[in-house]
Specification:
By secondary structure, this protein is an alpha+beta fold. 43% of the residues lie in helices and 16% in strands. The model has no long low-confidence stretch (mean pLDDT 92).
């Protein structure tokens, strides 16, 4: 599971390449649907902007998944597995919040290491 496909200033993860190289499926989790127009504007200021944008677009279809709150879905992109299975995994692992536990706990640990405490917003 990944928390989005971009990290630290639009460093982009090519999830298709991850699946190819590791033979492990990837589920990308997002709180909101991305605004591709705004992403493209932001990327225009970076090297290899078109390549980065294409990797983001190749990540696949964005699918809403209801975990805890019927009125507020989260969104996923999937590569290397069936979308129905990915939705079920996300639902089953979202036990304490809208976000799946593996991502929530990773966020808590990373924030605690970097800042000395977590604000609890995975």
């Amino acid at each position: 599971m990944l928390d989005g496909v971009t990290y630290a200033g639009f460093n982009v993860v090519d999830i298709q390449q991850v699946v190819t190289e590791t033979t492990k499926p990837v589920i990308v989790v997002m709180r909101h649907t991305p605004d591709f127009d705004e992403i493209k504007k932001a990327l225009a200021h970076l090297p290899e902007c078109e390549n980065r944008y294409q990797v983001i677009k190749r990540a696949g279809r964005i699918t809403p998944v209801v975990t805890k709150d019927v009125d507020k879905p989260i969104y996923i992109q999937v590569c290397g597995m069936d979308i129905a299975d990915a939705c079920e995994i996300v639902r089953l692992t979202s036990t304490r919040s809208l976000i799946p536990e593996p991502l929530r706990v990773a966020h808590l640990i990373a924030t605690g290491i970097v800042q000395g405490e977590s604000r609890g917003r995975a």
